[in-house]
Amino acid sequence: MKNSRFCPCYPSSLLLQFFLTFCISLLCLPRESILVYAQNSSEAATTTTVDVGVILDLDSWVGKMGQSCLLMAVSDFYTSNPTYKTRLVLHTRDSNRDIIDAASAAIDLLQNVQVKALVGLQKSFQAQFVANVGTKSLVPVVSFSATSPELSFVKTPFFVRTALNDSCQVKAIGDMIKACEWREVVIMYENSDYGRDSVPYIVNAVQEANARVPYRSIISSEATDEQITGELYKLMSMQTRVFVVHVSCTLGSRLFVKIREAGMMSKGYAWIITDGVTELLSSMNSSVIESMQGVLGVKPHVPRSKELDNFTTRWRRKFLMDHPNASGSDQLCIFGLWAYDSIRALATAAEEVPYKRSSGFKKLNIVANSTDLTKIGVSQLGPELRSAILGTTFTGLSGEFKLIDGQLQSSAFQIVNVIGSEATVIGFWTPANGISRTLESLEKNKYSTNINNLRAIIWPGESTVKPKGWEIPTSEKKLRIGVPVKPGFTEFVKVENFGATNTEPKVTGFVIDVFKAVMDSLPYAVPYEFVPYRKSGENSSYYNDMVYEVFRQHYDAVVGDTTIVENRSLYADFPLPYIESGVVMVVPIKDDAKKNAWIFLHPLTSDLWLTTGAFFILTGLVIWVLEHRINNDFRGSPSEQIGTVFYFSFSTLVFTQKEKVMSNLSRFVMIIWLFVVLIITSSYTASLTSLLTVQQLQPTVTDIKDLIKNGDYVGYQTGSFVAGLMESMNFDPKKLKPYSNAEEYGDALNKGSRNGGVAAIVDEIPYIKLFLAKYCTSKYTIVGPTYKAAGFGFAFPRGSPLVPDISRAILNVTEGDKMIAIEKTWFGNQVDCLEQRGGANLSSDSLSLDSFLGLFFIAGFTSVSAFLISVIIFLRENKNILASQLPVRQKLESLCKEFDKKKKQKNVKPIAPALTVDLSDVTGNSGSTAQTDHQQNSFTTIICRSPDVISQLDQGLSSTEPSSPDRQHPSPVEIT
């Protein structure tokens, strides 16, 4: 009966219990969920719901953070925009980090829920498959964390990336490498779509920074600790100490712990991580952060704002409430901000699309064996919604939201340094300005890759000194240095005991001593050993083949008397040359005892002889024109005048001209011309003297062209590039003879080209100097031009980090006393010997026209000017003829007659008492010349009172002139 008493009350207690449970559940719900429920209840009749599918890895940090940001974005957006007619409704599915689960979730949302858009898809391999599904069903697929460069808006037009492409950051990484002047970088990447897809872009950025990638370290996302450690030990055995790590956050956490355990997070190492790890540093365990001290990283820059600070505080409170036991930090990262902005863009776009309740999926024609994708159909709202999303722009929590080619555009990256428990910002990078300490310090149109623009960096091992990027591992084998084995010129390189059993080859010589001095000057120890190189068979390309062995990695370097030439630089890198070089020709000297009968013509070249003779004639003609009308010395019969012109001009050569010039213009021309003659004669005398004294010692050949013309044989050193140089100068290869040493050079030159020897030896200057030093006589000399060569250098593999340091060490050795001591040790005092032979190396070249062009220009200008002035004066004096109405021919004849007449002098001073007799009658001149100047052509006679004397004088004068109609008596005697 007791139980029956409480039976009527039992239903009431159940209702009360249910009511209390419902109230407690409401209180426990997040505020955003209550708000969405209230809005959906009150506005269901006035708004249109837009179903959106969300696919996330809900057990991951990014998945949890992304889901909370998506829910908050929906709540915040419609709270700020209560008048919107559309409401996004999120339908979340867990992809469990698997591509199959992600695809199944997408098909389920499209087929059963008929969502208008898909959001999430953290992994690139998930996004790539679902993007193809969305493109087939015309449903936009929006991803805020799939960053692979292989995901393309062109391939899948309905894929929208509201995150940055991974390739956006590689330029920043390349500039950091360039700023640190590293020459080799190893890339470590995850063996997944995320890792592999970005490697080509990273490699290109490294190469643009003048560095190379000698090795790519691939680490599987499922690699065991032993496999990771084995790969790290392999990297430790290499020289490179700079690493770019592009892995996921999960693998990165394990990787850096093992890196520290292997001792690779110590001084001398440098590590750069991409944004996939940098952004999630805050979510990593403290032990992982401790193992990453000194690591550099890049991540997108997010501008600070009040909205961002407010949202971060609210999100942290909500996240800790939703996930009180979640591992990791409560720090919001860029992926959460991109998720928030993605919902805002999607909600804005949904409001702009004319939405109807019937806007569902249009079914396609279904045939037998159709797949689930075919049964889904195509979205009628999808194309318009996608276009609206692509055209949406605003300033979101992550910065400016603007999509170009279906993806978010980058603006700036932060460069961080892991110090202590956090990543400290040490600078920024922008596409327009490069590296800078702050964004405010950017200078317009100035791109910088200077490491000094960054704040102080703490490198691994708590070092403040920038790692040089490489070092020789203690466990590595010695560098194999190839040295040539050659029979001649052993002063440069000499290999002894080569091929002997149980005996190490002994390598000595000038080149070896220089190399040892250079290696001793390096700031670190580099172990090496010499390995002789000998090529069997044909030796014409000996040095080329030896350098090629470096390219084939048979040697780590080649040290020898190797000339730096273009074709060898294709296979190896050369530091600065340690000795200058050039190609010259040495020939025998002949003792010419027989004097050349025409040696007096040699001082001047033929063009100078012709020009000088032409100016002699030109000057004589100009003087004749200026003096003919006023000077009797330049008058007479035509033959006499021609003789006067030539005699007068050429007599100036020895200053023996007897004709007196009367015109001031003539005197001016003669002053200039006599100065030119003085210079020419002095130069001729000096050159002829030199020829007569040096003529006894002359080279047999003076130019390579003479060798080609004469068909002579030429010798060169075996294996030298000189053979190719001679062939490039059109020299017959059959006329080239290889020789190995200086003794063979001397024998070949003594025999001569006609007797089985050669007419000349063409080789590089160091060898020629050594050859002439051994033959310190006047038997040989260097002739012709010097063909430039880069010099002798050491060959290293292309991109070798040793090259810059060795170049600096070479400068240190060659600029000091070490080089002088080494040269004296191996070459002795060959310079003094060459100076003794200096006279034999002289060659007397003829004087050329180029040396006197200035003088001839002045003389020619003076003569022509004087001639033109005299012509102008003559025409002005006879302007009445020019103004007459006579025909042109008669005018010219009249002018010629006037020019041929003797011009009277007007400045005659009277002298008394004197008898002036005209001498023209005595000389027998014609009537036109009878009117000569009385001052120049008269003599004075004392007047005799006796008529007989006057009569006799008169008869004597008249007897010298033939009779003429105009003049039957002697010239009158003028008494003044």
From TrEMBL:
<feature type="transmembrane region" description="Helical">
    <location>
        <begin position="668"/>
        <end position="686"/>
    </location>
</feature>
<comment type="subunit">
    <text>May form heteromers.</text>
</comment>
<keyword id="KW-0813">Transport</keyword>
<feature type="domain" description="Ionotropic glutamate receptor C-terminal">
    <location>
        <begin position="478"/>
        <end position="829"/>
    </location>
</feature>
<dbReference type="Pfam" id="PF01094">
    <property type="entry name" value="ANF_receptor"/>
</dbReference>
<dbReference type="InterPro" id="IPR015683">
    <property type="entry name" value="Ionotropic_Glu_rcpt"/>
</dbReference>
<keyword id="KW-1071">Ligand-gated ion channel</keyword>
<dbReference type="GO" id="GO:0015276">
    <property type="term" value="F:ligand-gated monoatomic ion channel activity"/>
</dbReference>
<dbReference type="InterPro" id="IPR028082">
    <property type="entry name" value="Peripla_BP_I"/>
</dbReference>
<dbReference type="Pfam" id="PF00060">
    <property type="entry name" value="Lig_chan"/>
</dbReference>
<keyword id="KW-1015">Disulfide bond</keyword>
<dbReference type="InterPro" id="IPR001828">
    <property type="entry name" value="ANF_lig-bd_rcpt"/>
</dbReference>
<dbReference type="GO" id="GO:0016020">
    <property type="term" value="C:membrane"/>
</dbReference>
<keyword id="KW-1133">Transmembrane helix</keyword>
<feature type="disulfide bond">
    <location>
        <begin position="776"/>
        <end position="833"/>
    </location>
</feature>
<feature type="signal peptide">
    <location>
        <begin position="1"/>
        <end position="38"/>
    </location>
</feature>
<comment type="function">
    <text>Glutamate-gated receptor that probably acts as non-selective cation channel.</text>
</comment>
<dbReference type="InterPro" id="IPR017103">
    <property type="entry name" value="Iontropic_Glu_rcpt_pln"/>
</dbReference>
<feature type="transmembrane region" description="Helical">
    <location>
        <begin position="608"/>
        <end position="626"/>
    </location>
</feature>
<comment type="function">
    <text>Glutamate-gated receptor that probably acts as a non-selective cation channel. May be involved in light-signal transduction and calcium homeostasis via the regulation of calcium influx into cells.</text>
</comment>
<protein>
    <recommendedName>
        <fullName>Glutamate receptor</fullName>
    </recommendedName>
</protein>
<dbReference type="Pfam" id="PF10613">
    <property type="entry name" value="Lig_chan-Glu_bd"/>
</dbReference>
<keyword id="KW-0472">Membrane</keyword>
<dbReference type="InterPro" id="IPR001320">
    <property type="entry name" value="Iontro_rcpt_C"/>
</dbReference>
<keyword id="KW-0675">Receptor</keyword>
<keyword id="KW-0732">Signal</keyword>
<dbReference type="InterPro" id="IPR019594">
    <property type="entry name" value="Glu/Gly-bd"/>
</dbReference>
<keyword id="KW-0407">Ion channel</keyword>
<feature type="region of interest" description="Disordered">
    <location>
        <begin position="954"/>
        <end position="976"/>
    </location>
</feature>
<keyword id="KW-0406">Ion transport</keyword>
<keyword id="KW-0812">Transmembrane</keyword>
<feature type="transmembrane region" description="Helical">
    <location>
        <begin position="852"/>
        <end position="875"/>
    </location>
</feature>
<keyword id="KW-0325">Glycoprotein</keyword>
<feature type="compositionally biased region" description="Polar residues">
    <location>
        <begin position="954"/>
        <end position="963"/>
    </location>
</feature>
<comment type="similarity">
    <text>Belongs to the glutamate-gated ion channel (TC 1.A.10.1) family.</text>
</comment>
<dbReference type="InterPro" id="IPR044440">
    <property type="entry name" value="GABAb_receptor_plant_PBP1"/>
</dbReference>
